[in-house]
Amino acid sequence: MVVEHRIMTLNQHRIALFAGIPLLSSLTTISSSAGETDFQMASSAGETDFQMEGNFELEFEPEADREESWAAELEFEYFLDADFDSSGAEISYSRAGIEIEGPILDLSYSRYDFDWTGAKQIGFSRGASNPWSDLHSLSLSSSAPFRLTDNLDLMIGAEVESAWESEIDSSFSYDLSLGLQWKFSENWGLTIGGEYTYHPDTSLGNEFLPMIALAWRQDAEEGWSASVGIPTEIRYIFNGSSSIVLQGSGEDGVFRLSNDSAVSPSGYAEWSQFGLGVFYEHKLDQHWKLSMGLSYSFEGEWRIYDKKGDRLATEDVGGALGFGVGIKRMF
Fold first, then answer.
1. Strand partners, 61
2. pLDDT tens per residue across span 171-221
3. Which sign does the torsion angle of CA 257, 110, 175, 8 carry?
């Protein structure tokens, strides 16, 4: 499983499947009068006009900031030491990730590297000074909107993900997202739906997550816009190339531990952590976009299970400050 600024991954709980789809992304109109026929299509990709009046005329006017069909993004983030509530132990981590976005499918990979202080004091460590050093996540996802009425879209998303320490067998989970997106006025819209996660090897990953968000000026090209709920994002666009974003973030995933893990051989580590981040985004040109920012993770939790999915231990972790940077290339 992995919540979006994309600098906040892992099981970003497929909220991105909903958040990434513009409200009512296309509109087609056809009008006709004596001797003249106009065809217009407006979408996130731009506006196309066809005019027939004696001679055939084709005019294409793409928007300057339109998103391309393919994109690749590199990300890095680092979180400072966070304290375990039950001991004096500390944990810090970094995440490096890459995502390839296509017209139909998205492919993403993340590597998490952990640094431990006093890990032997943690209940689930069983005396190990390094319970795990690195964890990995690989996912393949797809989403699509379907027009129901002029102001109502049905959204469907699906994902398969593997999250592991060393071996990938018994590490897969599957997500299905369904939702409705209703634009009830020029500036306001409502998204409501949910996501079901299925882990075939254990019952610990089987859960339903409701999602609801109220959006305001979602398609704004300048000034304020917001989405409040799940997901939450407040954005201010300075001009066509720069914006400041306040966004909810988090990690939530189930990792399959190694066969020789000191914590739980062939077992699972479940991680949940949520916070807020402030990011600056800047489009360098038509093809490149840079993002950077600070975030704070609130108190999180690690839950350890055996290979059957029975819980062995739970440890709470305090908040921590982090920073991140990302670069995106549109093709």
1. 47
2. 999 999 999 999 999 999 999 999 999 988 777 767 888 999 999 998 898
3. positive
- pLDDT per residue over 12-71, tens digit each? 433 444 444 444 433 333 333 334 444 343 333 344 443 433 443 333 333 333 345 899
What 3-state class would DSSP assign to 22? coil
Give the tens place of pLDDT for each residue, 46-59: 444 434 334 433 33
CB proximity list for 34: less than 8 A, separation 6 or greater: none
The 26-33 sheet, strands edge to edge: 26-33, 36-43, 46-53, 55-62
d(CA 174, CA 155): 17
What single letter denotes the amino acid at residue 323? F
Using the structure block, give the residue that is written with the tokens 């398969």: 160
CA 98 to chain centre: 12
**Residue 179: Cβ-neighbour burial (10 angstroms; 0-12, 13-18, 19+):** buried
Q: Which stretch of DSSP H or E encloses residue 49?
A: strand 46-53
Strands 90-101 and 320-330: unpaired
Comparing CA positions, the residue from 272, 256, 276, 20 lying closest to residue 138 is 256
- Please state, in angstroms and as integers, the Cα–Cα distance from residue 28 to each residue in 57, 87, 158, 280, 281, following that order: 19, 61, 28, 34, 31
Residue 166: exposure state from Cβ atoms within 10 A (0-12, 13-18, ≥19): middle
String of b and e for 269-301 (b: at least 16 CB within 10 Å)?
A: bbbbbebbbebebebeeeeebebebebebebbe
Distance CA 271, CA 252 (A): 5
* Burial class (CB within 10 angstroms; exposed 0-12, middle 13-18, buried 19+) of 224: exposed
